[in-house]
Design a protein that fits this description.
Elements (H helix, E strand, L loop, with lengths): L13 H7 L1 H16 L5 E5 L9 E5 L7 H24 L5 H4 L5 H10 L12 H6 L2
Parallel strand pairs: 1-2
Amino acid sequence: MATARRVVVVSRSARGIDERGLHKTNLAALREALIRVARPGCVCLIDGFGVPAFEHEQRAVVGGDGLSAAIAAASIVAKVTRDRLMVRAGEQLPNWGFGAHFGYSTAAHRAAILEHGVSPLHRMSFQSTAYQQLAL
């Protein structure tokens, strides 16, 4: 972080993802982040896929976090940010244990959903075999 020229974090709500879909929401968030960090003449390296309607040169790099230090750093910033948000969510919504499982589909997470239902942070559009199995 000390050597980075710019670091931008863009987040979206579960409700927004449910309304627009995960892929469209991800593209819009990525586009917003790139607009905020890109400068004239730069080439933006993007992990996995390109961003439509983006005015700067870009390169989609499949497996980018293993090939580019910049993409790897962005992945770490995203993971640390998400983990911190989950710790805060765990404090505000203690019944779901977000601070312990960080939103991943663990046995404890699934058990909390069975006991308490979904929280305001859960994406209703999320299709997981694990969650589908809860209904069986």
